[in-house]
Amino acid sequence: TPREFALLEPFLRHRGSVFSRSEILERLAGSSSTASARNLAEKVYSLQRKLAMMGIDNLVETRRNAGYLMP
Fold first, then answer.
1. Exposed (0-12), middle (13-18) or buried (19+): which is 34, by Cβ within 10 Å?
2. Cβ–Cβ < 8 Å for 70, 12
3. Reported pTM
4. Which residues, other chains included, contact 62 with Cβ-Cβ below 8 Å and sequence gap of 6+?
5. At what angle do helices 21-29 and 37-53 cross, to 10 degrees?
6. Alpha-carbon distance 3 to 9, whole Å?
7. 58 pLDDT band (50/70/90 cuts)?
8. DSSP per-residue string spanning 5-35
9. Rounded to whole angstroms, how far apart are CA atoms 59 and 65?
10. pLDDT on residue 34
11. 32 backbone dihedrals φ, ψ, rounded to 5°
């Protein structure tokens, strides 16, 4: 989906960088967003599942108390 691509794009551009949840939410929806960290976690999980179905595991990893990164 376009939202999933928007979620994946910063990881592809800045591979190895950790993005906090707030940074990702800002990139996805701007400062007027009503999105929450829980919504973000659901989107990341959905993206991870879809990538795994294509044989791409662990492309986006969760870093506890930090955010997410693409190793």
1. exposed
2. yes
3. 0.75
4. 44, 68
5. 80
6. 10
7. confident
8. HHHHHHHHHTTT-EE-HHHHHHHHH-TT---
9. 19
10. 59
11. -90, 10
Residue 9, CA distances (Å) to 19, 40, 54 in order: 12, 15, 18
User: pLDDT tens digit string along 13-48?
Assistant: 999 999 998 888 888 776 445 567 778 888 889 999
Tokens of 31: 């400062």
18: which 2 tokens?
A: 């950790």
* Nearest alpha carbon to residue 44 among 14, 67, 26: 67
Max Cα–Cα distance, the chain, nearest Å: 36
